[in-house]
Amino acid sequence: MRFRTGRTARPRLLAGIAAITMLVAGGVALAGDDGENDPLEPMNRYFFELNKFFDTILLKPVATWYDGVVPEPGRDGVRNFLDNLRSPVILANDLLQGEWDRAGTTASRFGVNTTVGVLGLFDPASNWGMKQHSEDFGQTLATWGTGEGPYLFLPVLGPAPPRDLTGFVVDSAFDPLTYIYWDRPKTVPVTRFVVNGVDQRARSLKTFDQIERTSIDFYATVRNLYRQSRASEIANGQYNFDTLPDINDLTFDTNEPNTPGMRP
Fold it and tell me: Most CB atoms closer than 10 Å: which of 69, 80, 99, 195?
């Protein structure tokens, strides 16, 4: 009975994915990208504070315990294992973006780390020149010209503008683990989601605390950092120099009266 339910739910899931994707592809561009593009800021700030409360009472203590109890080699093994599990999703998006060389690297990494790396617990592929990278369907939509849409912050998920939220749903369909059941249909993906969240939070304990201490507006800082991080991921870490201002338009504010480019 459970198997039959899973099979009937799958077409509904894929139909929902298709509908969301079409809505995002056709409508996100209407929500311009001028200014902060945060029309839902009051609601977003509420959910941001809700997540902070959840982090304070649960996620941060668990991540601190995990960081203190599990030795670094063990934590690295968990990270490697989780990264290796995501390889099929990364490969699918490499192919959708036409990144054939990166797709080859992803497939090779998965083969090497799954075998030589003992199911991905170790990462010999990186030592052999096959560096790990990440791709998701949100990035794929961006390379297809889809705009981010209005900024959205959701409970548990965190920053999730429409383009990236659509990517999260579609990537779930790409992921083979979505269709693997233990005792319940969502046991495997939920377990991985929780472990991944704890591991990532443990790796950002000091950085996150420092950002919060030095931020005048913590919410706005997180929003800006998220957008900068996503822009870097979409560009595969390559900066677009076309966005730099023309050097002839630069003004140098110095005390030297004969400085080139200085306006009187």
Answer: 80
Contact between 117 and 76 (Cβ < 8 Å): no
217-257 pLDDT, tens digit per residue, is: 999 999 999 999 999 999 987 655 454 444 344 443 444 44
Q: How far is CA 137 from CA 92, 106, 168, 215, in A?
A: 9, 15, 7, 31
Q: Residues 177, 192: contact at Cβ < 8 Å? A: yes
* Mean pLDDT value across residues 103-125: 97
**C-alpha count within 13 angstroms, C-beta hemisphere, residue 95:** 10
Contact between 149 and 33 under an 8 Å Cβ cutoff? The reply is no
Q: Among 208, 13, 227, 40, which residue's Cα sits nearest to residue 138?
A: 227
The residue type of 32 is G
